[in-house]
Write a structure and sequence with these properties.
The complex is a heterodimer of chains A (196) and B (467).
Chain A (H helix, E strand, L loop, with lengths): L7 E9 L6 H4 L19 H4 L21 E4 L11 H9 L3 E4 L4 H10 L2 E4 L2 H13 L4 E5 L4 E4 L5 E3 L4 H9 L3 H6 L2 H9 L2
Parallel strand pairs in A: 1-2, 2-3, 3-4
Antiparallel strand pairs in A: 1-5, 5-6, 6-7
Helix pairs in contact in A: 3-4
Chain B lengths: L7 H7 L2 E4 L5 E4 L2 E4 L5 H10 L9 E4 L16 H17 L2 E3 L9 H7 L8 E4 L13 E4 L2 H10 L1 E4 L3 E8 L8 H12 L7 E6 L1 H4 L3 H9 L8 E3 L4 H7 L8 H11 L12 E6 L6 E3 L7 E3 L14 H11 L14 E4 L1 H4 L2 H11 L9 E4 L4 H9 L2 H7 L25 E4 L14 E4 L2 H10 L10
Helix pairs in contact in B: 2-5, 6-8, 13-16
The chains are: A alpha/beta (196), B alpha/beta (467).
Chain lengths: 196, 467
C-alpha cells in the first residue's frame, strides 16, 4: 500500500483561481534534485510563494492563514506541462488529498491518482460556485465522496457528480496501487512478451 | 486481420494490450523504456522497498541529460545534489544490468535525441520515459509518451503500464510552407490555434503534404511539441524518409531482421476511411515564422503580428493579464524590435543537426550582437561531432559563438544554464512557463532561424530578412 486510502473527505479548501497552472509552477525544476520522495511540500509553488530572498509573498494564497484545508481548487487546465510526478508529491506532501478543477492535464491526472490524490473534475459553472462560496466564507467546506462520486458545497448544498473509472476508484478506496496489480499478472506479461 | 479500416494509432495500440480491464485502463506493454537521472531514482527506491526486480533490463536505456553541466563535463560535477543523482543512475543501472550512457560516454546526450540517432526508436513500437517530451519518438510511427515516476517503477518491474486508451485526433496540414517557415513554426502555429489544452485526452496523428515532405528531424520537432497542446503524444506514419533515416544506425535491425521488420513497418499507416474522434485541417500558406509572447506555448503568433488583446483570446482575462505582466509586455505590442538578452539553441525540440544547420545559415558571415549571451548546446555528442565535421563549428566560432557540451541545459535550467530574472531569451526549446529557464526568466519560444536572427541583431527580427 503506497498511500492512505480515500473515502469521504470533508474540508475547507484553498482557492487558486488561475488557469493553466503548469507543473513548473507547482514545483520548479531546480527542486527536482532529490533522490528520495521527501520534503517536496516545502517547495510547493515555490516561486509564487516566496520572493527571491526566500521570504513568503503575503499575497499568495498559501501564505494567507485564512485559507486552509486538504482540498486545492484550481482554474482550468490544472497540471499542464512537465510529467514530473514531483508535482503530485509536492501537493500530497503539503497536505492536500484532493484537487478540484474544471479540466486537468492528462499526465498530472494520472500521477495524482497514482500517489493517492483524487483529481475531481467539475463543470466550469460548479467551479465558479465553489470559488464564490470560498470568497464568501473562507471556511466554507466541500465534501468529496468517492464511493458516491459526488462533490458538494456543504453550506449551499449544491453538488455535482464526477467521473472516475471503476478500477481506479477501487484502488483509491482501498489504498491499492497499479504495481500490486501488475505484479500479480507477471506470468501473463512474460507470455505476452515471448509471443511478440 | 479484420477488414474494418483502422488508424495507425489503433494498429499500434491494440497490438500492445496485454489485458483489458473492464471499466478501467488497458494493461499496456512497453517495447522501449528510456530513463534519466531526475525521474528514475525514486522508482528504483520503490523496487527496493517492495523487494522486486527489473523484468526486462534489456528493454530499458539510460542517459544522463536533465541535470548535467554543459561545460567541463570531464570534471566532477560541482553541485553535490546533481552529482548524487548521476551517481544513483550509474549505480541503479549497474545493479540491474541496464545500458547506461552517462556523462562522457560517446553516446550520451538528450534522451529524445540519442534514442532515434542510435536506432533504438523504431516504427510500431510503444515507447515511454519519465519525461513529457517522449512524444518526440512518435515521428517514427511509434506510440510514445511521457509518464510519471510511479509508472517508471511499473515499467521497470513489469514492462507494462496501466493506460486508458486516448481518443484520436488527426491534424492535416496541406500545401507548401513559405520561406523561413520551419517545423517548429508549424507546431507553434498549431498550438496557438488549439491552445495548451486543445488536444488533452487525445493522441494525434499528423498527416498531409507538409509532414510527408518533412525530414525526420523536422518530424521529431513537431511530435515533440504534441504535449504542449495537451496531447499525450503525436505520431506520423513511417515512410521511405523514416526507413532511410533508420537504416544502418548502430542498434537498428540488420540483414534478414531488417527485411522482416521493414515489411511490417510498411503496414503502419491509417487505412482509407478510418474514423477519428476529431479532424483538424490547416493550410501551410497561413503559417509564418512564429514567436511566443506569453507564459504558455499556446500564446504564440506570427512574428510580424501584434500581441492580441485579452478580450480577443479564449480564457480568463486575469490569467492573460498576469501572463503579459510577467513578460513585461502590453496588449497590441509588436514583437519585432523587442530587445533580446539571451539566445538558446538546443533541447530535445531543436537540438539536432538540421537545427544547427539552419542557425548557421543565418549567422554565417555575421557577428553575434555584443549584448547577447548565446548558448549553443548540441542534443548529443553525435550532433556535436556532426557540427564539427560539417564546418558549422567554424561558422559559429567566426561569428562569436561558443559551442557547449550536450544536455537539456537552459530548456529547464536544472543545471547552471539559467536565464537571470527579468531577462529576455529567444529560445528554441519547448516551454515559456514562468521561471522555466530560471527564476524570473522571460522566454520567447521560436525556431532556430528566429533565434539566429535575434542573436545577430540583438532584437526580435523576422528571419526572412536574411534569407
Amino acid at each position: 500500500m503506497a498511500y492512505d486510502s480515500f473515502s469521504v473527505l470533508r474540508s475547507s479548501a484553498v482557492p487558486l483561481p488561475i488557469e493553466n497552472v503548469d507543473t513548473d509552477q507547482i514545483i520548479p525544476a531546480r527542486f527536482l534534485k532529490a533522490t528520495e520522495r521527501k520534503g517536496f511540500g516545502d517547495n510547493l509553488f515555490r516561486d509564487w510563494r516566496y520572493d527571491k530572498n526566500d521570504q513568503p509573498k503575503a499575497d499568495f494564497v498559501l501564505n494567507n492563514p485564512t485559507y486552509q484545508g486538504k482540498i486545492l481548487v484550481g482554474g482550468k487546465n490544472f497540471g499542464s506541462g512537465s510529467s514530473r510526478e514531483h508535482a503530485a508529491w509536492a501537493i500530497y506532501d503539503y497536505g492536500f488529498r484532493c484537487v478540484v478543477s474544471s479540466f486537468f492535464a492528462d499526465i498530472f491526472r494520472g500521477n495524482a491518482i497514482n500517489v493517492g490524490i483524487l483529481p475531481v473534475q467539475v463543470s466550469p459553472e460548479f467551479l465558479h460556485q465553489i470559488f464564490e462560496a470560498i470568497e464568501k466564507d473562507p471556511k466554507a467546506e466541500l465534501e468529496v465522496n468517492l464511493q458516491e462520486q459526488r462533490i458538494s458545497i456543504v453550506s449551499t448544498g449544491a453538488s455535482e457528480s464526477f467521473d472516475i473509472n471503476g478500477y481506479k476508484k477501487h484502488n483509491l478506496l482501498n489504498g491499492f496501487d497499479d504495481i500490486d496489480y501488475l505484479q500479480a499478472m507477471k506470468d501473463e506479461i512474460v507470455s505476452f512478451a515471448s509471443n511478440r | 486481420m479484420s477488414n474494418t479500416p483502422n488508424t495507425l494509432f489503433d494498429k499500434v495500440w491494440d497490438s500492445h494490450v496485454v489485458r483489458k480491464i473492464e471499466d478501467g485502463p488497458d494493461v499496456f506493454f512497453i517495447d522501449r523504456h528510456f530513463i534519466h537521472e531526475v525521474t528514475s531514482p525514486v522508482a528504483f527506491l520503490g523496487l527496493e522497498t517492495r523487494g522486486i526486480g527489473v523484468l526486462f533490463p534489456e528493454k530499458t536505456f539510460a542517459t544522463a541529460d536533465h541535470n548535467t553541466p554543459t561545460i567541463n563535463q570531464h570534471l566532477p560535477v560541482e553541485d553535490p545534489l546533481s552529482a548524487n543523482q548521476l551517481l544513483q543512475l550509474e549505480k541503479n543501472t549497474a545493479k540491474y544490468g541496464i545500458s547506461h550512457w552517462g556523462l562522457g560516454n560517446p553516446k550520451n546526450g538528450i534522451v529524445h535525441v540519442v534514442g532515434p540517432e542510435n536506432g533504438i526508436t523504431l516504427p510500431g513500437m510503444t515507447i515511454v520515459c519519465g519525461d513529457s517530451h517522449t512524444s518526440t519518438h512518435g515521428a517514427f510511427g511509434a506510440i510514445a509518451f511521457g509518464i510519471g515516476t510511479s509508472e517508471v517503477e511499473m515499467v521497470l518491474s513489469s514492462q507494462c503500464i496501466m493506460q486508458p486508451k486516448p481518443k484520436k485526433m488527426i491534424i492535416n496540414v496541406n500545401g507548401t510552407l513559405g520561406k523561413g517557415v520551419t517545423p517548429k513554426d508549424v507546431a507553434l502555429y498549431i498550438i496557438s490555434k488549439l491552445s495548451t489544452s486543445g488536444a488533452t485526452g487525445y493522441f494525434v496523428e499528423y498527416a498531409g503534404d507538409v509532414f510527408r515532405n518533412m525530414s525526420m528531424e523536422g518530424r521529431m520537432t513537431v511530435c515533440n511539441l504534441s504535449i504542449e497542446m495537451g496531447a499525450r503524444g503525436g505520431m506520423i506514419a513511417p515512410d521511405q524518409t523514416t526507413f532511410d533515416y533508420i537504416e544502418g544506425r548502430e542498434l537498428a535491425p540488420k540483414g534478414a531482421d531488417w527485411d522482416k521488420q521493414l515489411a511490417y513497418w510498411k503496414t503502419l499507416k491509417t487505412d482509407e476511411g478510418a474514423v477519428f474522434d476529431q479532424v483538424i485541417n490547416f493550410n501551410a500558406a497561413d503559417i509564418e515564422p512564429m514567436i511566443t509572447y506569453g507564459t504558455n506555448p499556446g500564446m504564440g503568433m506570427g512574428i510580424s503580428k501584434h500581441i492580441p488583446k485579452a478580450t480577443d483570446v479564449e480564457g480568463g482575462v486575469a490569467t492573460y493579464e498576469k501572463s503579459l505582466d510577467y513578460m513585461g509586455f502590453a496588449e497590441d505590442d509588436a514583437m519585432i524590435g523587442k530587445k533580446v538578452d539571451y539566445v538558446f539553441i538546443g533541447s530535445c525540440t531543436n537540438g539536432r543537426i538540421e537545427d544547427f544547420r539552419a542557425f548557421a545559415s543565418i549567422v554565417k558571415g555575421r557577428k553575434k550582437a555584443d549584448h547577447v549571451t548565446a548558448w549553443v548546446v548540441p542534443g548529443s555528442h553525435i550532433v556535436e561531432k556532426q557540427i564539427k565535421d560539417e564546418g558549422i563549428f567554424d561558422i559559429l566560432t567566426e561569428a562569436g559563438f561558443e559551442l557547449r557540451q550536450p544536455g537539456c541545459s537552459a530548456c529547464l535550467a536544472m543545471n547552471d544554464d539559467k536565464i537571470p530574472a527579468g531577462k529576455y531569451a529567444v529560445s528554441t526549446s519547448n516551454r515559456n512557463f514562468e521561471g522555466r529557464q530560471g527564476p524570473g526568466s522571460r522566454t520567447l519560444l521560436a525556431s532556430p532561424l528566429v533565434a539566429a536572427a535575434a542573436a545577430v541583431t540583438g532584437v526580435v527580427t523576422d528571419p526572412r530578412e536574411f534569407l
